[in-house]
Amino acid sequence: MTDQGNNNNQNLSRNPFAALFSSVSDAKDFASVQKQPQPLSLDDSRGSQDDSDNSVSESVDENDDSLAEISRSFRSRQELCEQLNINHMIQRIFLLTLDNTEAYSPGCAGDPSLKGGNGIPPRCVYLEEMASDLDGQDWLDMDNIEQALFNRMLLPEPGNHLINMTSSSALNLSADRDAGEKRAVPYLFSCFQRAKEEIKKVPEKLLACAVRCKNLSVLNARTVLLTPEIYVGQNVSEQLLNLLLEAVSGGLLEEVGEFLDEVIAALLADQEVRTFGEVMVPVFEVMLGRVKDLDLCQLLLNSYLDILVYFSKQLDIARVFVDYIQPKDPNNGLQYQKTLLGAVLNISCLLKTPGVVESHGYFLNPSRSSPQETKVQESNIHQFMAQFHDKLFQILKNLLQLSPDTRHRLLTWLGGCLHANAGRAKIWANQMPEIFFQMYASDAFFLNLGAALLRLCQPFCRLRSPKLLTFNPTYCALKELNEEERRSRNVHVKGLDKETTLIPAPQNQEPEFAQSYNLLTENLILTQYALHLGFHR
Length: 537
Description:
This protein is elongated. The chain is mainly α. Strands 1-2-3 form a three-stranded mixed beta sheet, sandwiched between helices. The protein is built from 21 helices and three strands.
């Protein structure tokens, strides 16, 4: 027996539990058996398998939770990217922001994440008060853009609230001018244009937002025109007229016309505060104050004439225009000259006051001018007169063709004008100039009116024109008619039955009058009468 065995025997003999066995040898045998590995019972095996299955199940659950977390994170990032895109699009359209930090935090790939990148405007108006009210929200969305735009419109000096949207400190006057635009109407038109550009290029998921931004520019323009008193220090009528002038000179009349068409539709849909006529009349008043002081050879005159041509093509504006030009006293011939159409007709190379040459801009020193200089000035005058008469013809033609209502109102104006100025052909008119100039329209007025009406007669005054045979001379023999009869029978010239005829009419015999007269008959009568009154003196 080895020393280790002796030691084990000694240890067992000293163990008090060894007394339970009959001998130390029996105790040793029992101890050796206990040290051998024991096979698992069936119950122990099942318990171990359950523990393993639970461990796998817990691992699968942990993976599912991780996938759900990743999905939520992805959706959250998608929403963030979409919100960033909406915010940037609004900034590009309206040039305003709620964020005055130096740069955005890193965003999603392919989307604007830094100021100045991917179309972020270089300058924006920072709405500090609104940003503080939103308590930490520094982005614009479709829920707050309407309020943000209204707040921006109320700023008296938006240029004082500009911030750089890029890290560049370079001077950018055009960006400062666009973002800091103080005038409400031009600003909203620019927003309308920028929204149209966004509609062309934004992805489909942002299209509805871009369309709403365009509509917001239209609705705010309607608000500006309906309630101009809200916007302190702004003359919206002048702004609208100046916008049209800039459009004519810059070749943007079609774009401005599209903007105004939508604004007009919005105005006509809501006339509780102010009618569309009440909106347009102040614009006509501003235009009248400017046009009456223009000279024939001023280039600015052509711009105003182009605006009038546009007015004569736009049905809703034309309806207001033909009502606006009706004189307060239809029996006073001079009152027609004081209307907007009359002020335009009064522009000429003739002396504004016969005999007074101090303020005349043509042929000031004819005795000192060479024949060549005189011919050049005559040629310039003829060129400007031809352009001027062509625009007048377009205005009258458009109003006559636009609708039955505008035609009736224009013909009423023309007929009333000729009737009120019938005294120009009297003998005493040349003998009492002081009274003449207080009662009747000027020679320049009738010179231009006759030229425009002659252009209207041109299509059916050609040699052997069959249209001329439709002229009905009984028009001149009609007696007084009421307003409704004049409209239904197309008779607008008054007092012709009192004029002296070349061939006396048979007594107690009236001609057979037509139930309605065509426009050719009225055009010829109006033209002949206008030339008679204009050149009889």
